[in-house]
Amino acid sequence: MAAELSDILIRQARREDLPALVAMFAADALGGHGDTTEPEAFPDYLRAFAVIEASPDQTLYVAERGGEVVGTFQTMVTTSLTGCGSSAMIIEAVQTRADMRGQGIGALMIEFAIAKAKGRGVRLVQLTSNMMRRDAHRFYERLGFKPSHLGFKMALK
What we know:
Blueprint: E1 8-12, H1 18-26, H2 42-54, E2 58-65, E3 68-79, H3 82-85, E4 87-96, H4 105-120, E5 124-127, H5 134-142
């Protein structure tokens, strides 16, 4: 870990982190997920947090600096019959607070996730990124990720 990042703590998210996490997602105009800090939406975030927290194969993490949440990501481990029944880790919802970008926090979070994946003995780590996020693509490639698949989505809501 770089010296300037020695003050970053990566830990499992807690319920009290939700307002900071929601604010980060709501501030992401490019994401297009419809996140909002409107109070009437908060119960939806609470429900999702409860599902993630209860799952043995999902973990929501935060990066904290000086007691403030400055980044987040979520991991999910899936097992498939392909690859001789191996498991893969999916990294999702990677976000660094806008005023903290470019300081290495994102790389630290991804390296943390990869270490967790290795610790669980998974076969590969994968993630998706919005096609418009060219800077993010270069970032992931610098970390060793290779574009390999074309993804498709179907919105149901």
